[in-house]
């Protein structure tokens, strides 16, 4: 039993882990993330003496080789990550039943909250009734998939599904699920710690809850009781001083930090914020910054718990018995934030908040921050031509125009002050007679249904609607690529070769992310999104040039409309009510269309062989191969830097002329309404045909061919999945070569599942993003990091090259050196690398052939059954 101490609160006596006693003087030198990980490790049964020794080594800068155990108390998923995970579970239940075992034994052992938020599209906008129309369309498009989710929640009591319209998962996590302190019925209490199958799960770090994003495959292990094994992490400290200037938002700070931390290279590190500047940021501000952790490459963007954290919980209606217990419990555990403390970090940087200015990021990566005034120059650089400044808005969409302006995403809509700022700016624009450019598709999709209440109470909803930013629903929408159809004027401009961009308050702007036809996108704060919609283009300095002219012909500048801090706070005080958060959520739960969806009343899911949405997964079975051992393979793909999971496995709308579109149409799909790839993650046939079809996914084996095409050895052009099938028929394994930051972006397990379906046994890259690396291992694919100067996209690799590697299962160690040998006739190239495996647990997963075979083998072992491959 871990050593504990008693804490007296206003309502009870609680027992908490006695970290000060266990770690002694070591505790105050540790960053808070290590303190929390230590607390969890001890509750998992870790040895206190071994832990203390490892932490002392860590503080001395030594390589500890120590692995921390981590067990979350809850798991968070959304509809497009839960669908493949639940399909895997359904497939595993089938495999258990076919082996003579009871399928019902396979059910999550910890609470799983599912938010249905990733499938809402902006079909209708800037008109009354838009939310209702978009919600009905969403449920109609996804009825079969949603029925499957309802089935899962009924046969597995630990799975709870929140219907469409209840909000975005990370907003729900902040407003509904997070407790900061978990109090058991036995009086034992511990910090709330969780994991989520979305890369932006660290948003919860903003209120002091430790949590991060994992892939769906890792989540399946966690669901069934597997303790997460973590290598002792690198912890980066970011010292904040001063306070944000007037007119600068938390979005601006988040974008600037994303740039600085990407330059620092914090890949897979745990980032923690400290210093006196932290106290000047509200919990909402902090959540915006924490949300962008995957964009700056980190596992966390952690803000330790303090009075602002507790104030947030009170403001969102948490019970007084909980909020009163948090500070004494956290102080007793040594987890309460001290702005004057300076823990030991592996690396650190400092930022004076007072030096910031209004900021954008783009036009192609979230880490490419720039002053808001410099948008025109950024577009010129991106498109490679001059775009002279425009003195006023032209009559039609210009080159360098804005096609989509969206207040979207959990990142910024979870902060009421940012939405209030956008509303105040919109009302002032309405008063001056301004309106958005007629070609701009505008939308507002808050993360919480309570936004309607406080915006209306503040008198801002009508102003937002007047300038085109009426609410279209409560979900991810444009941020995830569900921006819906483009206006005709935008389609025409693109056909004419004009540069057209999106401006959004989201977190990612990769080419094709917002919409398949839009390669340019700028991230901005919600009020800045409204301002750019009024301007209509990017060929001006938005901070100095007029946004338009009022009825008298007088120019109207951004400075005339931008709300002051006291205006925002005044509106916040009169409009925001704690009871709205839970009352509006309960009202959204009462969804008649959702309630009317049927759910099969069977212990095993009845797969329909004619279904276009759901197919029994191919990989939910015993392993037939392993990536370990000697391997002679061929290169299937050779890719460049920044190949995101969006490039690998797209989420957006399906082109009817694509391979996936053709497959669906041949089976009765409507060419005009094929839905998005994300809605087919329960059907491997569709997902296989969508792999690497993003226009920016250039295969350097044949860079002259369209994406997802390959020239065979006899010269014929094959679709990627056809080429992979040929290699499989020949018994030839394949590998992927890639550049830096392979797999950055969303925690999309299909980016790894798809590679497995292509027969990929190893991915050899210059570097990997954390979640995708673990997803590859979860599918039994070996990740190898290139450690010499070899750059795959410049290496002249050919389809006929033989790629040899040997990583034996028996003696495999984390991060061990290896060699990749490429042979072409008498020519031999040796590439130095290391196995990108961090823990013994990951090695065990590779030996088992992946997560799913491992789960199946463990379940069968428990029941005494066996299954032949």
UniProtKB/TrEMBL annotation:
<dbReference type="InterPro" id="IPR001030">
    <property type="entry name" value="Acoase/IPM_deHydtase_lsu_aba"/>
</dbReference>
<keyword id="KW-0004">4Fe-4S</keyword>
<keyword id="KW-0479">Metal-binding</keyword>
<protein>
    <recommendedName>
        <fullName>Aconitate hydratase A</fullName>
        <ecNumber>4.2.1.3</ecNumber>
    </recommendedName>
</protein>
<dbReference type="GO" id="GO:0006099">
    <property type="term" value="P:tricarboxylic acid cycle"/>
</dbReference>
<feature type="domain" description="Aconitase A/isopropylmalate dehydratase small subunit swivel">
    <location>
        <begin position="664"/>
        <end position="787"/>
    </location>
</feature>
<comment type="similarity">
    <text>Belongs to the aconitase/IPM isomerase family.</text>
</comment>
<dbReference type="GO" id="GO:0046872">
    <property type="term" value="F:metal ion binding"/>
</dbReference>
<dbReference type="GO" id="GO:0003994">
    <property type="term" value="F:aconitate hydratase activity"/>
</dbReference>
<dbReference type="InterPro" id="IPR006249">
    <property type="entry name" value="Aconitase/IRP2"/>
</dbReference>
<keyword id="KW-0411">Iron-sulfur</keyword>
<dbReference type="InterPro" id="IPR000573">
    <property type="entry name" value="AconitaseA/IPMdHydase_ssu_swvl"/>
</dbReference>
<keyword id="KW-0408">Iron</keyword>
<feature type="domain" description="Aconitase/3-isopropylmalate dehydratase large subunit alpha/beta/alpha">
    <location>
        <begin position="59"/>
        <end position="536"/>
    </location>
</feature>
<dbReference type="InterPro" id="IPR036008">
    <property type="entry name" value="Aconitase_4Fe-4S_dom"/>
</dbReference>
<dbReference type="InterPro" id="IPR018136">
    <property type="entry name" value="Aconitase_4Fe-4S_BS"/>
</dbReference>
<dbReference type="Pfam" id="PF00694">
    <property type="entry name" value="Aconitase_C"/>
</dbReference>
<comment type="pathway">
    <text>Carbohydrate metabolism; tricarboxylic acid cycle; isocitrate from oxaloacetate: step 2/2.</text>
</comment>
<dbReference type="Pfam" id="PF00330">
    <property type="entry name" value="Aconitase"/>
</dbReference>
<dbReference type="GO" id="GO:0051539">
    <property type="term" value="F:4 iron, 4 sulfur cluster binding"/>
</dbReference>
<dbReference type="InterPro" id="IPR015931">
    <property type="entry name" value="Acnase/IPM_dHydase_lsu_aba_1/3"/>
</dbReference>
<dbReference type="InterPro" id="IPR015928">
    <property type="entry name" value="Aconitase/3IPM_dehydase_swvl"/>
</dbReference>
């Amino acid at each position: 039993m871990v050593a504990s101490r008693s804490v007296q609160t206003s309502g009870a006596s609680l027992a908490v882990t006695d970290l000060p006693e266990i770690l002694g003087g070591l505790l105050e030198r540790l960053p808070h993330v290590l303190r929390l990980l230590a607390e969890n490790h001890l509750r998992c049964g870790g040895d206190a003496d071994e832990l203390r020794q490892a932490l002392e080594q860590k503080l001395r800068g030594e390589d500890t080789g120590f692995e921390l155990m981590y067990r979350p108390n809850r798991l968070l998923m959304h509809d497009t990550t839960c669908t493949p995970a639940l399909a895997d579970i359904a497939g595993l239940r089938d495999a258990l039943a076919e082996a003579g075992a009871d399928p019902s034994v396979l059910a999550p052992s910890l609470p799983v909250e599912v938010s249905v938020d990733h499938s809402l599209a902006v079909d209708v906008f800037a008109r009354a009734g838009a939310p209702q129309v978009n919600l009905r369309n969403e449920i109609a498009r996804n009825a079969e998939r949603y029925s499957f989710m309802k089935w899962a929640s009924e046969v597995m009591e630990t799975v709870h599904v929140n219907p469409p319209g209840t909000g975005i998962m990370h907003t729900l996590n902040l407003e509904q699920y997070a407790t900061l302190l978990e109090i058991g019925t036995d009086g034992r209490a511990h910090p709330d710690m969780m994991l989520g199958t979305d890369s932006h799960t660290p948003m919860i770090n903003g209120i002091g809850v430790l949590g991060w994003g994992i892939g769906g495959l890792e989540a399946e292990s966690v669901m069934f009781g597997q303790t997460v094994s973590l290598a002792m992490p690198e912890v980066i400290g970011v010292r904040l001083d001063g306070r944000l200037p007037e007119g600068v938002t938390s979005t601006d700070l988040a974008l600037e930090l994303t740039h600085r931390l990407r330059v620092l290279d914090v890949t897979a590190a745990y980032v923690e914020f400290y210093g006196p500047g932290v106290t000047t940021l509200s919990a909402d501000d902090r959540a915006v910054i924490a949300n962008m952790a995957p964009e700056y490459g980190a596992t966390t963007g952690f803000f330790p718990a303090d009075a602002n954290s507790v104030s947030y919980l009170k403001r969102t209606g948490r019970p007084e018995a909980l909020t009163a217990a948090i500070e004494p419990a956290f102080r007793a555990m040594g987890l309460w934030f001290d702005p004057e403390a300076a823990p030991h970090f592996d690396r650190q940087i400092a930022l004076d908040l007072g030096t910031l200015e209004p900021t954008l990021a783009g036009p192609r990566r979230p880490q490419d921050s720039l002053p808001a005034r410099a948008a025109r120059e950024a577009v010129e650089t991106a498109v490679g031509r001059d775009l002279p400044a425009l003195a006023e808005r032209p009559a039609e969409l210009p080159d360098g125009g804005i096609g989509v302006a969206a207040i979207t995403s959990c990142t910024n809509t979870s902060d009421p002050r940012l939405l209030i700022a956008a509303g105040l700016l919109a009302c002032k624009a309405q008063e001056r007679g301004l309106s958005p450019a007629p070609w701009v598709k505008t939308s507002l999709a808050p993360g919480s249904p309570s936004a309607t209440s406080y915006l209306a109470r503040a008198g801002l909803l009508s102003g937002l609607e007047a300038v085109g930013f009426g609410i279209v629903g409560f979900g991810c929408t444009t941020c995830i690529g569900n921006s819906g159809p483009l206006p005709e004027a935008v389609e025409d401009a693109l056909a004419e070769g004009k540069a057209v961009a999106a401006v959004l308050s989201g977190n990612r702007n990769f080419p094709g992310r917002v919409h398949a036809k839009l390669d340019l996108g700028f991230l901005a704060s919600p009020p800045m999104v409204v301002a750019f919609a009024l301007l209509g283009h990017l060929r001006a300095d938005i901070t100095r040039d007029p946004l338009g002219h009022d009825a008298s012909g007088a120019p109207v500048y951004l400075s005339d409309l931008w709300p002051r801090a006291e205006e925002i706070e005044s509106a916040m005080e009169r409009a925001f009510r704690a009871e709205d958060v839970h009352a509006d959520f309960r009202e959204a739960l009462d969804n008649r269309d959702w309630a009317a969806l049927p759910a099969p009343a069977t212990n095993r899911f009845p797969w329909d062989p004619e279904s276009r949405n759901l197919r029994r997964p191919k990989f939910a079975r015993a392993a037939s191969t392993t990536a370990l051992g000697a391997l002679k393979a061929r290169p299937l793909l050779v890719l460049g830097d920044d190949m995101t999971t969006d490039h690998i496995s797209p989420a957006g709308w399906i082109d009817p002329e694509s391979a996936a579109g053709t497959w669906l149409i041949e089976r009765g799909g409507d060419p005009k309404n094929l839905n998005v790839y994300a809605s087919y993650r329960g059907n491997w046939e569709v997902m296989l045909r969508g792999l690497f079809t993003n226009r920016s996914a250039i295969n350097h084996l044949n860079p002259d061919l369209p994406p997802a095409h390959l020239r065979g050895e006899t010269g014929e052009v094959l679709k990627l999945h056809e080429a992979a099938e040929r290699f499989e028929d020949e018994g030839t394994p394949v590998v992927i070569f890639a550049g830096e930051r392979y797999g950055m972006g969303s925690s999309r397990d299909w980016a790894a599942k798809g590679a497995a379906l292509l027969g990929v046994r190893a991915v050899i890259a210059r570097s990997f993003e954390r979640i995708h690396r673990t997803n590859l291992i979860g599918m039994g694919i070996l990740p190898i990091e290139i450690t010499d100067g070899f750059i795959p996209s410049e290496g002249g690799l050919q389809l006929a090259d033989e790629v040899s590697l040997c990583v034996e299962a028996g003696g495999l160690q984390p991060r061990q050196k290896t060699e990749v040998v490429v042979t072409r006739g008498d020519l031999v190239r040796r590439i130095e690398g290391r196995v990108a495996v961090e823990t013994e647990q990951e090695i065990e997963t590779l030996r088992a052939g992946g997560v799913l075979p491992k789960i199946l083998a463990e379940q069968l072992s428990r029941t005494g059954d066996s299954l032949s491959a």
